[in-house]
Specification:
The protein is an alpha/beta fold and about 400 residues long. The chain has helices at about 10-15, 55-70, 80-90, 105-115, 160-170, 180-185, 220-235, 240-250, 250-270, 290-295, 310-320, 350-355, 375-385; strands at about 75-80, 95-100, 120-125, 140-150, 175, 195-200, 215, 275-280, 305-310, 325, 335-340, 365. The protein has a 7-stranded mixed sheet, sandwiched between helices. A 5-stranded mixed sheet has the order 8-9-12-11-10. Bound molecules: pyridoxal-5'-phosphate. Pathway: Amino-acid biosynthesis; L-cysteine biosynthesis; L-cysteine from L-homocysteine and L-serine: step 2/2.
């Protein structure tokens, strides 16, 4: 099936793109290609695969499928979302500068400030809530802009189209980390991004049992550079992980629909609850970027952040009271998870930066799962009632 065929529905692409029945046995689900090497009929004559670091059929199936869902020509899978960042950053040369949204994923911030800097690549972190803020931070040597939308954990929406136009007018590439939306709710390439990246670990795999990443692009030159780096740096996923992620991907559409309808219901409930100070969900009219979210996204996703009324003790009591909603980092799995950013995901951020970003002690981030919504509502209700 042609990955670029836009007339084919999302759910159909998620199931069929790259998924070619085994030609020898007819197996509808292609077997996992565990072999590290591939027979050549004569020296240099082969079926497209030589050695599994440079290319593997199970990985290729997954890369083809995600590319089809992002509306991209090329997909490249990596051992983690973080190794996608490392690989892209390695395509820059010493002396390059990049502009990043200020509340970028913590691991990305760490890579920019603690690793890339030693390779001579400098990053400036900018509040991009107003896209025009990118201008004063652009330099002669700015080669890349790195954006996430919605941001984490305060779920601000960045105007991807506006940032893309500015970056392109100044010869820089735009990378969008689309992990929080998944390709179901947002396609950054269609908004002008040059590369879209995902932590597959989250929604794409969706079952909290694989760590993996992917980059998708339409730009052949960018693809060739990244493919060269994928092979040279070697941070490739195993065939088994590619198989699991490919299986998870098949249900992405129905999972995302349920994540979002559950999240909307929970956000509305929390907003009406007197124990809650503030709810941050792009699907609520009270969200400051609600209109932009409606324009740029096809839905609002499964992440909800909120501020509980009370001090850290009350918040901890609330978290401890929860029965099904599990206290854990990460997101995007079928099960609901909740976490306290100031101590958990954003514990390494300095107190000053946490204050700037609005990561207060009472801010809780929830990855709403696909359980029955009544059970999630009941769990939150009893935990809030008993937190005093
Ligand atoms: C988890 C995450 C990453 C890092 O991905 P890993 O697979 O954990 O390496 C990058 N960006 C975002 C937005 C994430 O949530």
């Amino acid at each position: 099936m042609s990955p670029s065929n836009d007339n084919i529905g999302f759910g159909t692409r998620a199931i069929h793109a790259g998924q070619i029945p085994d030609p020898t046995t007819g197996a509808v689900i292609p077997p996992v290609s565990l072999s590290t090497t591939f027979k050549q009929t004569a020296a240099g004559v082969h079926s497209g695969y030589e050695y599994s670091r440079s290319g593997n059929p199970t990985r290729h199936n997954f890369e083809t499928a995600v590319a089809a869902l992002e509306g991209g020509k090329y997909g490249l899978a990596f051992a983690s979302g973080s190794s996608v960042t490392a690989t892209i950053l390695n395509t820059l040369h010493s002396g390059a500068h990049l502009v990043s949204v200020n509340d970028v994923y913590g691991g990305t911030y760490r890579y920019f400030t603690k690793v890339a800097v030693h390779n001579g690549v400098e990053a400036t972190f900018v509040d991009l809530n107003d896209a025009a803020n990118v201008k004063p931070h652009f330099k002669e040597n700015t080669k890349l802009v790195w954006v996430e939308s919605p941001t984490n954990p305060t779920l601000r929406i960045i105007d991807i189209r506006a940032i893309a136009d500015y970056a392109h007018a100044h010869d820089a590439l735009l990378v969008v980390d689309n992990t929080f939306m998944s390709p179901y709710f947002q396609n950054p390439l269609s908004l002008g991004a040059d590369i879209v990246v995902h932590s597959v670990t989250k929604y794409i795999n969706g079952h909290s049992d694989v760590v993996m990443g992917i980059a998708v692009t339409n730009d052949q030159a960018v693809y060739e550079k990244l493919q060269f780096m994928q092979n040279s740096m070697g941070a490739v996923p195993s065939a088994m992980d590619c198989f699991l992620a490919r299986r998870g991907l098949m249900t992405l559409e129905v999972r995302m629909q349920r994540h979002a309808s559950n999240a909307q219901a929970l956000a509305e409930y929390l907003e009406s609850n007197s124990n809650i100070e503030q709810v941050i969900y792009p699907g609520l009219p009270s969200h400051p970027n609600h209109e932009l979210a409606k324009k740029q996204q096809r839905g609002f996703g499964g992440m909800v952040s909120f501020r509980v009324k009370g001090n850290l003790d009350n918040v901890n009591k609330f978290l401890g009271n929860l029965k099904y909603i599990t206290l854990a980092e990460s997101l995007g799995g079928v099960e609901s998870l909740i976490e306290l950013p100031c101590i958990m995901t954003h514990g390494a951020v300095s107190p000053e930066d946490r204050a700037t970003l609005g990561i207060t002690e009472n801010l809780v981030r929830m990855s709403v799962g696909i359980e029955n919504v009544e059970d999630l509502l009941a769990d939150l209700k009893q935990a809030l009632e008993n937190m005093a």
